[in-house]
Amino acid sequence: MIAGKEEKSKAPASSDEELLNHNHYNELRMNKPLYCPSTGAEIEQQGTEQQIERIPLSAGSTALLIVDVQPEYWTDCPSVRKDFPHFEENLALTIEIARKQKAKIIWVRADYRKHHSPWLTQFERLRGKKADVTVELPCEPESDEFAWESFATPEGGETVIAKSSWSSTSNTALMDILRVSGIDTVLVCGLITSVCVQHSAFGVFEAGYRTLLVEDACGDRGMARHEAALALYGGYMYELITSKELADPVKGLQKAKPVWITMDDVKGKKRSNSNESTNRIQTYITSSKRARSSSDQSTDTPSERSSFDEYERPNKKIVSEINVVESSTSIVSLLKNE
């Protein structure tokens, strides 16, 4: 919010339905055929919005992604609280449903520092250095200033990810976590709708996951920005759902069932996946050594050549030591001979 400008006063909304009325942004909705030139008359006939068939939601393969629900964007941000008086209860209900039905819950916190967030320089240039504009926002759980919101605090066993940009999928381990957890559907909610929530939803959608935005468990710096984002991308990039719909016993989030792993899975699929991971690691190491060797032949010592040759030999036993780098989705593997 730019300092020195006053917002026009708005009458308080009486219900969530009034808050989520998108009539002013109907012209932004994607309700016309894609890549199909039409006359004005044809567009008018085709202008009715297509209803998306609701596929059942199984908690066992669903993750709830809670983006940037932290004091900097809620308690300390009156421009968001002003237009979203029901956000706390709607988000609390969404979290309660996900926990009750045993969905995977992933929390995301902003960690914006210039040494790992190069976009901050341009953001500061665009927004200017003002008292009400926070540029760097470190995520330091050990700090005395670090806090969660009382209505939205992680519990034991839930995952917390720090992100360095507006997207929860850029330079984080989110995609790996979803993959190994067997997730195919992601519910996205949090703050700010048109910025970090939108970018995170796009990253998940782009990766091929079914993406749903819990629209009444999101908030923005003004209802107009929130409604415009939903009108632009709801039904186009992600499905829209409310916290009340998630609670529906028939059409809402269904309780997770036990996961069975049969002996066939152990002997077949699991071994195949293990081999696939090993092959990826081996390919990475092979490519790296070849690149290093071709770029500087003079540094290719006999010991390096010997190690490379031994690595290529299938009958040579190799032990893998894997170090996971938290700030990246990449897994750096160092192989050494026994």
Question: Would you kindly provide a written description of the structure presented here, covering whatever features stand out?
Answer:
With about 350 residues, the chain is of the alpha/beta class. It is built from eleven helices and ten strands. The protein is globular. Strand 3, helix 5 (about 120-125) and strand 4 form a beta-alpha-beta unit. Residues about 1-20, about 40-50, about 270-280 and about 295-338 have low confidence and may be disordered. It folds into two domains: about 15-35 and about 55-255, 3-Layer(aba) Sandwich (Rossmann fold); about 265-335, no CATH class. It is about 35% helix and about 15% strand. A six-stranded parallel beta sheet has the order 4-3-2-5-6-7, sandwiched between helices. It has a two-stranded parallel sheet with strand order 1-8. A two-stranded antiparallel ribbon has the order 9-10. It comes from Chaetoceros tenuissimus. GO terms for molecular function: hydrolase activity. Keywords: Hydrolase.
Layout of helices and strands, plus pairs?
Layout: H1 16-19, H2 40-45, E1 57-58, E2 62-67, H3 78-81, H4 87-100, E3 104-110, H5 120-127, E4 159-163, H6 174-180, E5 185-191, H7 193-206, E6 210-219, H8 223-233, E7 239-241, H9 243-246, E8 253-254, H10 263-295, H11 302-312, E9 318-324, E10 331-337
Parallel strand pairs: 1-8, 2-3, 2-5, 3-4, 5-6, 6-7
Antiparallel strand pairs: 9-10
The rounded Rg comes to: 24 Å
Query: Total helix count?
Result: 11
Number of strands: 10
- Apparent shape: globular
Annotated CATH architecture of the largest domain: 3-Layer(aba) Sandwich
The CATH topology of the largest domain: Rossmann fold
Taking the sheet with the most strands, its summary is: 6 strands, parallel
The fraction of residues in strands falls at: 15-25%
Which percent range fits the helix content? 25-40%
Give the end-to-end Cα distance, rounded to a whole number of Å: 60 Å
The CATH class name of the largest domain reads Alpha Beta
Domain Isochorismatase-like: 62-244
Family: Belongs to the isochorismatase family.
Region (Disordered): 267-313
Keywords: Hydrolase
